[in-house]
Design brief:
GO molecular function, one term: DNA-binding transcription factor activity
CATH superfamily of the largest domain: Response regulator
Structural class: alpha/beta
Strand content: 15-25%
Order of helices and strands: HHHHEHEHEHEEHEHHEHEHEEHEE
Radius of gyration: 26 Å
Protein name: LacI family DNA-binding transcriptional regulator
Distance between the termini: 82 Å
Number of strands: 12
Largest sheet: 6 strands, parallel
InterPro entries: HTH_LacI, LacI/GalR-like_sensor, Lambda_DNA-bd_dom_sf, Peripla_BP_I
Keywords: DNA-binding, Repressor, Transcription, Transcription regulation
Organism: Streptomyces muensis
Number of helices: 13
Helix content: 40-55%
Shape: elongated
CATH topology of the largest domain: Rossmann fold
Strand order of the largest sheet: 2-1-3-4-5-11
CATH class of the largest domain: Alpha Beta
Length: about 350
């Protein structure tokens, strides 16, 4: 037989007070003129009886549901960006909110369905997230509710959370310059992506930081090796092309870790040791990066911190519009050394 739900009246009776008084205490009414003894008795009774407030009734009173939504393209099912979900869930839990998650796979029809479903449930706000950082066109229905962008920006003046890619570009270049490298190549720079923020913000921002670090020392890139994509096979092909040139760079900045994985293999195929013959540094901090030999120095995407900040902004009704840049820490491992003499 199912156990009867403990009611507010049960708590009031156990505390020896009126139902109204118990309600004032449990709803934290600041204007309630009750003694501290009365408050303690109500709270003790609620704990002893295992009272749980009716969330639906409370939401009607305060016009909030204590639920928020995270709508993404492919974040929820992507291992690499799962930190966004962990961070968002952590803050939602700490703030006593439920996080509802929907993934659209980039399908406009699935996106419309997800937005309708979340708004029908009267969520208090929406985190609108993207797997890779880019400029989004935000659906009108989200502009009519409280929305924070995660790993994305837009022209709509919404609060947005993005990784500090330009600072990371500066940091990886500075790490090489600090070891004395002057002939530095970039592997994976794709002009079409760099110029198209709707496709990717990362490429352009990373390149801007790299160029700035070099310019601060009166230097320019020695060479750029363009690749079709940013996968390991492209890194292998690009690094092979760099090594076949007459003047080999002393260090290579790969635009992401997958390119670096392929570059490692190409260096080994050519009989080059890392970092004795050539140094490599990258971006993202894929879990495999620390298992390479030597470990790959890379600027980490702060997905968990980004997820946390997005929910904090969503629940902060005083949060101003604009972009918050989350630092990308440099994970220093063994892939950078001094230039070979």
């Amino acid at each position: 037989m199912a156990q009867r739900r403990v009611t507010l009246a049960d708590v009031a009776r156990h505390a020896g007070l009126s139902t109204t008084a118990a309600s004032w205490v449990l709803n934290e009414r600041e204007d309630a003129r009750l003694s501290e003894d009365a408050r303690r008795r109500v709270l003790a009774a609620a704990q002893e009886l295992g009272y749980r407030p009716n969330a639906a009734a409370r939401s009607l009173r305060i016009r909030k549901t204590a639920t928020i939504a995270l709508i993404s393209d492919t974040v929820a099912t992507t291992r690499f960006a799962g930190g966004m979900i962990r961070g968002a869930l952590s803050v939602a839990r700490d703030r006593e909110h439920v996080l509802l998650i929907a993934e659209t796979q980039g399908d406009p029809e699935l996106e419309r369905h997800a937005i309708d479903a979340m708004l029908h449930r009267q969520v208090d706000g929406v985190v609108y997230a993207a797997m890779y950082s880019r400029r989004l066109t935000v659906p009108q229905r989200l502009l009519d509710t409280r929305t924070v962008l995660l790993n994305a920006t837009s022209a709509h003046g919404l609060p947005a959370v993005l990784p500090a890619e330009e600072d990371a570009g500066y940091a990886v270049a500075a790490a090489l310059l600090g070891q004395g490298h002057r002939r530095i190549a970039v592997l994976g720079r794709i002009e079409s992506i760099e110029r198209s923020p709707r496709r990717s913000l990362a490429a352009g921002l990373r390149m801007r930081g790299i160029r700035r670090a070099l310019a601060d020392r009166g230097l320019r890139l020695a060479v750029s090796e363009h690749t079709r994509d940013w996968e390991a096979r492209d890194g292998h092909a690009g690094m092979t092309s760099l090594l076949e040139r007459g003047s080999i760079p002393s260090a290579v900045i790969c635009m992401n870790d997958r390119l670096a994985f392929g570059a490692y293999q190409a260096a080994a195929d050519a009989g080059k040791a890392i970092p004795d013959d050539i140094s490599i540094v990258s971006f993202d901090d894929d879990p495999i990066a620390e298992w390479l030999r030597p470990g790959l120095t890379t600027a980490a995407l702060p997905h968990e911190e980004m997820g946390r900040l997005a929910v904090e902004l969503l629940l902060d009704e005083t949060a101003e519009p604009g972009t918050r840049w989350v630092p990308m820490p440099l994970r220093e491992r063994g892939s950078i050394g001094q230039p070979a003499t």
